[in-house]
């Protein structure tokens, strides 16, 4: 059964490649976002990952905001995209990944090369403009994946883009649970684990549910990036029941 599921996932990835190459260049941004959202949901279905949206924001519906979340797995991007297609900020080395890097670029991922200050500044200015143009920008402020049951420190730098663009921050808490509501161990993508090893674990496991919890928006007017990062981390930790 895992082998059959793996073949289905590979075929779905192939469909994604064809869609990006043959359809994306000829359709508007709204249509591309709809295709990304549908493809992401279908991928999660093939991996037997259900998505449950939970609202702890009090019904807030932002026109535009900088979206952040804790980072557990490569699945996180597709879980968020199944809610709304976003332009993610990711490490530049992901761009070199076979197939996945190209697909990410076609889906609008913004690649950030650390240590190259001129490029970082150029990308940062681009983020500000895109936020002002009401594009959905998302990133994982932990900077890397962490095991469920904990939360890493939040890097504050990119929160400055929301402050300069004068948009709020919309935080999400993300966790993966089993049928009993316990944290699902197969979701963790940490340490020296390879993408192939993670995929094998997920396809061999029983059904898991990704809980995407929308939290109250954080205003940025007059705020400092470290303050916004800390408030975001506290909200995410509280939603996950994690002690800081």
UniProtKB/TrEMBL annotation:
Residues 65-177 form the Phospholipid/glycerol acyltransferase domain. The lineage of its organism: Bacteria, Pseudomonadati, Pseudomonadota, Betaproteobacteria, Burkholderiales. The keyword Transmembrane applies. InterPro entries: Plipid/glycerol_acylTrfase. SUPFAM superfamilies: Glycerol-3-phosphate (1)-acyltransferase. Pfam families: Acyltransferase. Keywords: Acyltransferase, Lipid biosynthesis, Lipid metabolism, Membrane, Transferase, Transmembrane, Transmembrane helix. SMART domains: PlsC (SM00563). This is 1-acyl-sn-glycerol-3-phosphate acyltransferase. GO terms for molecular function: acyltransferase activity. The chain crosses the membrane at residues 6-30. Pathway: Lipid metabolism. Coiled coil: none annotated.
